[in-house]
Each structure stands twice: as C-alpha cells, then as structure tokens.
Amino acid sequence: MPAGCSDGSCIIWDFETRGIAKELKDKDCAVAITSVSWSKYGHCILVAAVDKSLTLWDVVKGERMARNVLQQTPLRACLHPGLSTPSICLACPLSSAPMIVDLLTETTIVLPVSLSDVGNGATPPSGNKIPDESAPFSPAIACFSKYGDLVYVGNSKGEILIIDSVSIKIRGMLSIPGSALIKNIAFSRSGQYLLTNSNDRIIRIYENLLPLKGGHEVLDRANQESTEQDEVQKLKHAGTGALALFWEFQDSITKVHWKAPYFSGDEEWVAGGSASKGEHKIYIWDMDRRLAKILEGPKETLLDLAWHPVKPIIASVSLTGFVYLWAKDCTENWSAFAPDFRELEENEEYVEREDEFDLMPETEKVKELDVYEDRDIDIVTVEEGDSALSDSDMSQEEIQ
C-alpha cells in the first residue's frame, strides 16, 4: 500500500510483514504529495506533488522513470489503465481543466469541461496548451473508463461528459438530477458502475450501459442514428444510452457532505467518508441502499480513503497525517472444527496423563480390563450349567 508523505517521499507498506517494503524519494521534490496511483501490473507508481510535478517510479528498482512539471498543482493523477507500459496519465489540477499527459514526450492535452468549450461538441479548443489562468474556470473532476478508451468528466454544472481519450471529442453528455457540482467521479473495478459525489450531499451510482471496450464506437453510431438536429441534443441522447441511474443515497437526518466515496473490490459495498470538520466517520452501504455500518475513528478530519482491491480492508487518511486501517474483527470459533473443544475463560494449568504422549498407550488395554470393573457380582444365585463341564459325578437332577 503506497502513501505520500509531507516531505515528498512515497512509502510502500507490505501487508504481509506489516513493514516498509520500499521508500521512494526524489531529491528534486521536498513538498507534500497529493496523489499516488499504481500502474496496471503494479510495477510502476505515479506520484503527484504540490510543486506541480508528476513523477513516474519503477517500484522494484526504486528508480525515477520520468518527471513532468505542470502549470498547476495536480490534486489527482492516475495512469492509463489500458496500457501495459505506463506512459499516459490523467491529471486533475487544482485550478484548471483535467488534462491527459504523455509522461515520455511531455505533451499535455486539455480536456473540455463543458459543451461551450467546444462549440458544437466536436473538437477541443486547443491541443497542447493550458488555457489562460486569468480566464474563468469551473471546477471539474475526471476518471478513465475500464480500459481507458473513454474519459468521464464531471463539471460544476452537474454534467457528465463522455470524451474519447484519443480524439478528445465529446461523444455523449448526461445531466445528474439537480445539476449540482460534481466533486468526485470513479468507476468500479469491473467498469460496470460509475459513482458520483455531488454538492447536493447525494452519492449516485450509475450503471454503465456501454461495452467495456469500443464504447466510443457505440456512441458514434448513436450520434449518427439520432434524429435530433441540434448537436447538444444528440450528445444528450447518446449519454442516456451510456449511463442509467442505478441508485442514490443521502443522509436526510444529518445532511452531511461526503468525501472520497469508493467501491469495494467485489462491488458489493460502497464506502464514503464524512466531510464534517473534526470528524473521522466512514459510512458503508450495500448495493441495496441499506446502511450497513458506520466506522468511527478519532476526532480528526478525514482527508481520503481507499478500499483494498481484494481484501475487506479500508485505509483512511486523517488531517494529522495518520493512516488508519479498518478490517473486520474476526472471532475464532474452534468448536466448529472440533466439537470436544472447550473454551477457557482464563488460563489453566494442564496436567497430562501418564501415557498421553506414548507411542503405544496403555489406555486401550486398561479399558478392556475395566469393562466389568464396576459391575455387581451375584454370589447367591445358582446358574444351570452343562454337566459335562461340572466337577461332580452326579447330574443336576440327582443333586436336587
């Protein structure tokens, strides 16, 4: 599990040994880390920092593979999930539009964050240049699809833009109910569900109706077959065929804002942290919208959380810099395997039998001898026996 530190280093913990497996430290970076992201096969890791840098590391060798400096501080950065060789990443800066960055060629392509940025929704305004910082900017967040052929952008108007990651063209658009600002957007591990966290205190789950591969081709056909004359209406029509609202959740009592919601690895659960100041609470729901558990930590503001891709473990980061691991408290029940197992309330001294650890115990022999040991012996009743086995020369009738 990687974690970025305030001094610019990245620590990787080993879950098996519970120790530090690797420490990545760039001599050119001495500021806080804002984001870490694994590559597809886990051989590389991308680190974003406050000094506006993106650094790609070879984890095994501990060597820096590439380093790019942007014009804005990247709050989030993730590598392209469909490439075996990590070279392209998606960065979401603090005060500019999300962008696709080629770490090897150091080229940057800014993504459109609204339909007005592209006029007719066909092409981006500029290829490799960052927009003027003096121009007004609406906050946006973005994520790759399962295989990275599409980018989903959530903007301040409550719109989800579906963009081709190669041509940077908008292929579809969907408005969330209420049109509130979208703060988080993320896909589940399988790519079947999309999660959004909005400023209206509602977490929404959308079902992905597009194929995992070749989704841009399906959207192109939908645009061509649409009977709508207006380009915006065509994009909306394509968007409704790409995403379907599955369910939404809000706490109508506390009206709490959510932070860093995410899916579990098996997609059976959704976790979201409370954004309240001085509160470290994690809410867990099942996919039927039932609140299953509330995890309460120390009175420290929650910054981020992540779910283990395989195990039922959640890692949360607090404002004080601590990383907390949450796991199920398992109670061992040995009587389920050994019915004669007896649980002890406290330690007791065990006294072993004399032949307990003998190779040929004498217990079985003793048991054979002691079968009739406690049986009462009748010495009064005379039993009829066979005369052939008697010591007397007289028969039983003669004796009587």
Automatic annotation (TrEMBL):
Database matches in Pfam families: WD40
Annotated InterPro entries: RBBP5/Swd1, WD40/YVTN_repeat-like_dom_sf, WD40_repeat_dom_sf, WD40_rpt
Location(s) in or outside the cell: Nucleus
Record GO cellular component, one term: nucleus
SMART domains referenced in this protein's UniProt entry, alphabetically: WD40
Sorted UniProt keywords: Nucleus, Repeat, WD repeat
Repeat (WD) residue spans along the chain: 33-67
Record's protein name: Protein RBL-like
Natural source organism: Salvia divinorum (Maria pastora)
